[in-house]
Amino acid sequence: MKRALIIYWSATGNTERCARSIQAGLTDAGWETELWKMGAEGSQGLEFYDYDLVCVGAPSYNWSAPKPADAYLKAKFQEYKARGEVVPGAPKRPGKNALIFCTYCGTHTGMNEAVPAGKYLGQFFEHFGFTVADEWYILSEYVGNEPNNTLGRMGDVRGLPNEADMVRLRTAAKNLAGRL
Ligand SMILES: Cc1cc2nc3c(=O)[nH]c(=O)nc-3n(C[C@H](O)[C@H](O)[C@H](O)COP(=O)(O)O)c2cc1C
C-alpha cells in the first residue's frame, strides 16, 4: 500500500482544512496517510523518505513561508545534510514525490504572493531528491483583516476556502494519487 505524509503549518485553520481534504482524497485512493502539524511533538522525527508522497502545506506570510514552517524545514534540511542525503546535483529518488499546497489571500499582487512561498517550500524537497509533482495555491481569507479580505486584487475572499474548495482538493488529491 502506498503511503503519504501530510505535513502542514496553520495558524487560523485554512491550511489545516486543506490538509485534511487532501488527506481524505488520498485515503479515497486507497493510500495509507498520516497527518502532522509542523512543530507538533514528535513531528521533527518524521522520516520523509518512508513515504511515497509528502504533501507540504503552509500559508503565505509576506509572500514567503511563516517562521515556524521555515524553522521546521530548515531543521530537517540540516538533519538530512548531516546524514549525507543532500548532495550536489540533487539526484532524483525514484518514487519519492512531494505536493506543495499554499493558502494565501492575494490582496496586493494576487497569486504572485503565494508562488514564491510555494516554490520555497518545494526547494527543500527537491534538495532531498523528491520530485515536486504539483503545487496548489488556494485563495483564502485573512482571518481578522477585513481590508485585506475585501479591497484587494482578488476581490472578496471572505469565507474562503469554502466547501467547494474542499471537494475540489479532495478530488484533486485522489487524482494525483492515481497518477503516482
Ligand atoms: C502575518 C500574516 C501575513 C500574511 N501575509 C500574506 C501575504 O504576504 N500574501 C498573501 O497572499 N496572504 C498573506 N496572509 C494571508 C494568509 O496567507 C492566509 O490568511 C492563510 O490562509 C492563513 O492560513 P492559516 O489559516 O492556515 O493560518 C498573511 C496572513 C498573516 C496572518
Arithmetic mean of pLDDT: 98
CA distance, first residue to last residue = 12 Å
Radius of gyration: 16 Å
Can you tell me the overall shape? globular
Ligands in the structure? flavin mononucleotide
Strand tally is 5
Q: Share of helix among residues? A: 25-40%
Please report which band the strand proportion falls in: under 5%, 5-15%, 15-25%, 25-35%, 35-45% or over 45%. 15-25%
Low-confidence stretches: none
Task: Report the sheet with the most strands, covering strand number, pairing sense and barrel closure.
Answer: 5 strands, parallel
CATH level-four homologous superfamily name: Flavodoxin domain
Reading off the top of the CATH hierarchy, the class is best stated as: Alpha Beta
Looking at the structure, the CATH topology is: Rossmann fold
Q: Order of SSEs, N→C?
A: EHEEHEHEHH
Q: How are the strands ordered across the major sheet?
A: 2-1-3-4-5
> DSSP helix count?
5
What structural category arises from helix and sheet content?
alpha/beta
